[in-house]
Structure prediction request, 66 residues.
Amino acid sequence: MYFVTMSPATGRLVGLRMIPGKMKKFRVNHASRADAELLGRTLNREGKRLGTHVVSKEDNVLELRW
Prediction:
């Protein structure tokens, strides 16, 4: 799931929080810590050229920084 925060004045992105999930039996469940860490490493690797990185927060929440 993605939780976006935007500036009402400019419409620009000011924050992005992501909660990794995993499909199982057609239901979305919370991803394991290991899966969330793997996703975070992948996003960090791919985001380097864009100047972004991901910070792991509590409960496997990933927060995009730039």
